[in-house]
Q: What sequence folds into this?
């Protein structure tokens, strides 16, 4: 390990603005199972998949559409 490091050419972390906040949320077992199965197929952790799906909803500005039967 060096005694000193030169950070003059360093750049800011582009992901620093994308901070995550831990929350508690209740999700149906069937929904969790679905994402866990997707996780096995993709190799991406299921919590990351859920976050990616929700982030895509935000990016696409999807509006919630509910119909009750």
A:
């Amino acid at each position: 390990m060096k005694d000193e490091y030169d950070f003059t050419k360093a750049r800011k972390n582009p992901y620093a603005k994308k901070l995550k906040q831990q929350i508690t949320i209740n999700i149906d077992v069937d929904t969790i199972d679905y994402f866990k199965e997707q996780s096995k197929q993709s190799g991406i952790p299921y919590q990351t998949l859920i976050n990616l799906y929700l982030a895509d909803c935000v990016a696409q500005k999807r509006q919630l559409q509910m119909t009750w039967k």
Helices lie at 29-42, 46-59.
